[in-house]
Amino acid sequence: MRRGMKISLVTLTGAALTLSAAGCGGKKASDSEGGGGKKSLKVGLAFDIGGRGDQSFNDSAAAGLDRVKSTLNITTEEISAKPDEPDADKESRLRLLANKGYNPVIGVGFAYTNAVNKIAKDFPDTRFLVIDADQCKVQGANVLGACFAENQGSFLVGAAAALKSKSNTIGFIGGVNVPLIQSFQAGYEAGAKHAKPGIKILPAKYLTQPPNFDGFKNPALGTEAAKGQLDGGADVIYHAAGGAGIGVIKTVGADKKWVIGVDSDQYNLPAVAEAKDHILTSMVKRVDLAVFDFVKSVSDSTFKPGTKKYDLTNDGVGYATSGNKVDDVKAKLDGYKADIVAGKIQVPSKP
């Protein structure tokens, strides 16, 4: 997206009402009562590439927004990013939301970091959140950056991969070769080696290089990469490729090998229903929790700028147990988690 307990993505509720807008799209406006006297908020959310419905990273953010709607009186507008767009487009999107009175405003994905830092200066009374803040750094008294110890969660699924592999060979597929995804790779490989020092890890495969971000949205790229790693003997493959990972899951599942999902618990995703029996686990990032915490803090007037880290100590990352595929190694995984929390295991963030 989480720990040694079963987790699942918050159930998505409500349908998005499509709004045709200049090059970007999707407005969803609704008011939920039951806020207990809470003030009404207009929340603007700018998705990363793929938007709501990517069945991964963006959907986890959407789930957090849906959870907010069930407890607070809010109006929302959602806008999706376009592939390979410049920072200027992200700035325009955020400025559009702020000018329309949306407060707070959320940018989903590290690519929004520079845009939020810039636009926030022009709207000092608007609160901004960046999910996956680049290098876990943001600027401004009205900006919060949520970042995740994806390397810690990846360590646990890497250990699971090594322990469950019968061919003693595993693989990793990253969407785009950027530092954030390299952190997934680093944790995964470290966890695998810790659990089984003799494990063979195939060279990591990245689907695209920046500034090409198709690696986060094109399933065909994931399909081809998965075929290559299966041919290399891998019987467990972990993807950190967003929407492109759907191709990885389907391909590995069709070959009846183990695949590991990312960001949300991908076990029950309709798009990969045929592969669910081969989804070993998922590394979950609680993006939904970060969105909910932020909006609630604005509503409660407890907002604090800076950065907030979601890691194993606060169950901000972890692993999914849906399908009970890791039951036989769960005790070991939970032991590794405890050692990481206690500082006995230091997880690298770079390969």
Automatic annotation (TrEMBL):
Entry's localization field: Cell membrane
Record keywords: Cell membrane, Lipoprotein, Membrane, Signal
CDD domains, alphabetized: PBP1_PrnA-like
PROSITE patterns per the UniProt record, alphabetical: PROKAR_LIPOPROTEIN (PS51257)
Bilayer-crossing regions: none
Key word ATP-binding present: no
Record's bilayer topology term: Lipid-anchor
Domain of life: Bacteria
Main localisation: membrane
Family: Belongs to the BMP lipoprotein family.
Protein name: BMP family ABC transporter substrate-binding protein
Organism: Actinomadura vinacea
